Amino acid sequence: MCSTPSGVNQHPNTAMKTKLMRITLLALLPLTPAAFAQTKEKDEAKKPAVKEVIVVEAAAPGTLAASIRDAATFSILTKALKAADLEATLGDPKGSFTIFAPTDEAFMKLKEGTLDKLFLPENKEKLRSLLMFHVIPGQFTTSDLKEGKLTTANGEKLDVDIDGKTIKVENAKISKSDLVLKNGVMHSIDHVIVPKSLDGFAGLDEK
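Below the sequence we write its predicted structure tokens.
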């Protein structure tokens, strides 16, 4: 069989096969370093940008909320402040408050089931009102407290009773006093105090 003379056009099918073979060989060739770098850059560009997440603590160090959170005896109060969205308020270093803080032991004196009911989402405002009844706007050390009534952060008044060195707010006795912090003063108390607006709710009126 005679070979195709030089200068004579090849059959179209033969030319097509030759072109496909060249493309296949080029595809199989390893990428040059420059081509590899370009390919990598394209792949990186396709990846979604990773956003930096900045975690901001609700309670600034040295504040009432931070002190309550870090103390071993206020785990229930810490949970309650978070549930009622009050952690940021008492964690603001620019604030000025006095809190009568019930210890875990004080909360455990409540009727069984009371805490569970208070922590239900539908009772958030009741929990908030209860906690704000323990907070006084302004800073009051024990030397500043006088017998009579104080207006709390929930708008209701509580009774202050002073008998010698013993100070009571409602039915609760101040067990540890005058912890002065960046945004206020904290006094530990041995009972949860209940505003009249919540008297009878979930057994809160039972002592």
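DSSP finds eight helices and seven strands in the chain.
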